[in-house]
Structures are given as structure tokens and as C-alpha cells.
Amino acid sequence: MINSLLDSIQNLITLSPAEIDIVTSLFKEKTYNKGDFFLAEGQICKQVGFVTRGLLRYYINDDGEDKTYDFAQENNFVCNYESFIPQIPSTKIIQALEDCEILQISHDDLQLFYKSIRQAERFGRLVIEHVFIQTLQDLSSFYVDKPEYRYGRFIEKHPDLLQRISQYHIASYVGVKPQSLSRIRKRLSNEK
Amino acid sequence: MINSLLDSIQNLITLSPAEIDIVTSLFKEKTYNKGDFFLAEGQICKQVGFVTRGLLRYYINDDGEDKTYDFAQENNFVCNYESFIPQIPSTKIIQALEDCEILQISHDDLQLFYKSIRQAERFGRLVIEHVFIQTLQDLSSFYVDKPEYRYGRFIEKHPDLLQRISQYHIASYVGVKPQSLSRIRKRLSNEK
Q1: Span A124-148, pLDDT tens digits
Q2: Which end of chain A is more exposed for a tag (fewer CB within 10 A), N or C?
Q3: Which residues make Cβ contacts (< 8 Å) with residue B65, sequence separation at least 6?
Q4: B85 to chain A: which residues are within 8 Å by CB?
Q5: Structural domains of chain A ordered from first start
Q6: pLDDT digits (tens, 9 = 90+) for A47-88
Q7: Which of A129, A131, A141 has the most B C-beta neighbours within 10 Å, making it the best mutation to test the interface with B?
Q8: What ipTM goes with this model?
Q9: With an 8 Å Cβ cutoff, is A88 touching chain B?
Q10: Is the pTM of this model over 0.95?
């Protein structure tokens, strides 16, 4: 399990054997059952996770209606940085859609990670730059793009997730009711 | 001029005398006249700037209508990171509202900065984390907050800019026509 995390880090920086031991000791294994909250509304996001098994959904509770804006699956980091970085309560929710195994590091231990790994600051900068660009693109898509386009984008970004996510949650990501999603799918398959 | 940039960097990290020389050699002084573009629409943002004199406006051209979303003044960094980090064309525009003096570093030289200054990666991570959080708050305010609230936020964030920015550009930031801004100002002053 730790190997996929180490690979993910070593894609960006080099770790010495001693540093591999430090990473291994700082990230703790945690299990979430389907339906459990990685981050509940109003909570402070206290950790960054790395998904080794399972699937989670990011959403906003908009006056009782769920608005899904992202998913995290195996080999993805999971975190609401808007809450995690300044350590303020989250307006967003992250919930397990399947039973999950997550390697997670606390805010305090992440500071230790930055101090004790030579290239950790570089790793942190590159990750946050990537998350920043991705978040801006997601947000702009959320406000601007048409449902057909968002469905196309979902298939492109998560081709392997169509079988793992309910029509209800895909519709919520696309920004339509489930019956409208069926119409979009029919229209797109007729166009082929 | 370079001293305010060095102070700004040294608020976050320590620089040795040799590193101060490197920073001084990597940032180049450039003058922009009022109306000049730091970044024009469709251009790739090729540098990060540090404003030592003057004022700039960030905006989007929305079908011929300007939508202002931020300002940069003395001792602020100025950049569209959405374009700068992945080096892709910008949908946003940054224009000088006054004659400006800017110390700027190119994308290539910034990589050199990261390589040659011991704590540069830490500095980069902290800056980008701050920009990330700030951008998310600005974007959310842009889409969600009412004009009254945005005007209050503008006064709070830029109390010294009320005299330097035209009513036209403040109205564009608040998201209303200039005549509506007068009504908002009147209402707020009556409430006091």
C-alpha cells in the first residue's frame, strides 16, 4: 500500500532510504466505510489523504441539494486545501462512495515532512500548483460549461468510473436531474 | 526598489548575502505606462512581477464588457498563475491603471531561482498556497456575493485605493453600473 504513495512522491522528487522511512512513519493507514465522511461540512480539514483503495466524492450542500464537483480514486490525493491550508472550517464535504483505505498525514506531521525531507518543499510546491490549476479549471467548468460538455469531460477524466458511480451522482456532477442525464446519454450515443 | 522585494521574500525565508545578489540579478526592472498591458488577452503570461510603484487592474473581457476581479499595488506580486504555471494563453487581462515600476522575473529565471536559493522552494510553496486560497475566495465572492458586500470588501481590502481608482473601475469590481454604485455608497453612508 505504501508503495503507490512512495511512487507518487518519487514521480516528482528523489527520496533517500532514510527519507522513505520517514514518509512511511508519517502517513497513517485509515479505513473509511462506504458513507463515512473524510470531511464533514463545517469541520476543519485536518489531514491530506492518499487513496490506496476506494472512491470518494467531493460536494457542496446547496440549501439541501447536493452539488458534486469532483471524485478521488486510487492513487489520488484527497483533501480540501481551502480548509486545510488556513485550518478553517470547510464549506465542502468529502464522503466515501465505497469502502476506502487511505494513507493520511496530519497538518502537524506535514510540517515535519517539509522539515525532514530535503526536496519536500519542492514536492509541496508542485502538488499545490497542480491542485490550484485543476481547481480553477473545475470551478470555471462548474459555473460556465453546459451539461453535455461536463458529461463529456467526466467520461474523459474518469473513463473507469462510469461503472462505479451511480447515475444519481454522475447527474449531480454534470449538474442535471437523473432523467436529463439519460436524455444526454441517448443524444450522445445517437450522434456516434 | 529592490529592497521592498527582498523584504517581501525575507518575510518568509532567510537569504544569505550571495543569495541576495542572485535575486537582485534575476529580477529585471521594467516600466509600464498607464494603459500598457502587463498581460494582454490570449497572451501567455511570461513573468511574475513585483510592483514597486503604481497600480494595475485584473479583468476579464466578457463579450465586450469588462469584469474587474482584482487590483495589484505597491509591494504586491502580479501574475496570472493560471497562465504562467502551465504556460498557456491567458483568458484574463492585467493592465496598468497608473504608470508602474515592476521588478519582474521570467519563467526560465524563476526555475533558476528555485535551483539556486536554498529555501526558494519553500518560498514558492507558501506564495502559491496564499494565492490559491485568495483566488478561491475572490472567485467565490465574484459569483456569490451581493454588490453591497463586495463594495464593503473592496473598502476593507484596499482602503487606500478609493482615491486612486475611478468610480467606473470600482463599479466594475463590485459588479454594478456606476450609477448603482452611487446608490450603494449613499445607502451605506446613510446607515452610519
Answers
A1: 999 999 999 988 888 778 777 889 9
A2: C
A3: none
A4: 129, 132-133
A5: 2-117 (2.60.120.10)
A6: 999 999 999 999 998 888 888 989 999 999 999 999 999 999
A7: A129
A8: 0.88
A9: no
A10: no
